[in-house]
Amino acid sequence: MAIRWTQEVEGGPRRVNHAAVSIRNRFIFSFGGYCTGEEYNQIVNIDVHVFDTVPCRWMKLPSAASCECDDSIPYMRYGHSASAIGDVVYIFGGRNDTHGACNTLYCFDTESVTWSKPKVKGRPPAARDGHSACVIESRIYIFGGYEEEGECFSQSIEYLDTQTLTWHRPRVTGKAAKWRDFHSATAVGTNMYIFGGRGDRMGRFHSGQEVYSNSVRVFDTVKNCWFKLKTTGDLPVGRRSHSAVSYGKHVYVFGGYNGLERKHHGEVYGLDTDTNVWTKFGHLWSLPLSTEKTLLLSYRNKADDIWRHESCVRRSSG
User: Domain of life here (predicted)?
Assistant: First the structure.
């Protein structure tokens, strides 16, 4: 498969640790995020930017009017997740420098452009940021991240049944992926592929001794079982804050940062989930930039299969 960038588009939001989803095979909705110089100790509503892939243009949605008693709109945050099921986007987690981490669920209707805070049942995951959210059928699986209350990394699996709006924590078997944050979780069929992220030599607790694994762990959502994938080929180095997307039987990984190497990465790797072989596609751009936090999204055009990428680049000062 030949992979290449088709167009560079200016005018998008400059930030990291935002969350984005593809809607109706045309629009990319981007929520919140962090940008150096902006204040995150003030309580303002989260912002929403939309990229229309037909004219290749960005627009910022007007801020929803709210009063202090209206808590249906999430406050500005970073390190959260966004998951799309139909035209509805589910926002979970993330943190703000005033309120800290959050575990409230919010919904954004992309048709009516309105927010809501649904009543959920069950026990939600602990407040966290840097987790992953993976949609498989009508469920949203939450894995990992950094839990604020326990001041620790997580390796738990929990899911939201969006049909009943109930949180579940399944009983699982197998050796779970290690504690981490800012990893990726990608669905291929009913399996969830965990790659990358930042861990710690102390395991669950943060000691500043960072670990970056390049192994792949898979969670079978039918059997509720973990297993480690034996991969070959051009293995990518461990990294955090990358992006990943599934396309057919492949998982594509782009960008990311390795703190031990102090290096930002700008290449694309593809994992064939049938053969478990990695393939490196190299740097796909001519710009002298690498990425720390990017979002790699795909959709299917009615005429052709086309890749669309949203990249929010944080320039290295070095």
Answer: Eukaryota
